[in-house]
Amino acid sequence: MLRKAVATAAAAVSSAATSSRGMLTDGPKSTVSAAVNSMLLRSLKDHYLEVSKMSPPPKVAPPAPFTIVKGALDSEGPILKRSYKNEEISIYVSRLAIISPVEGGDDEDDNSINQLFLHVDVSKPEQEESLHFLCGLYPDALGIHSVTMRPNLEKSGFLFLPKKYSGPEFEDLDERMRDAFHDYIHERGINESLFPFLQAWLYVKDHRNLTRWFKSVGTFINASSS
Question: Is the peptide bond before 65 cis (omega within 30 degrees of 0)?
Answer without folding.
Answer: yes
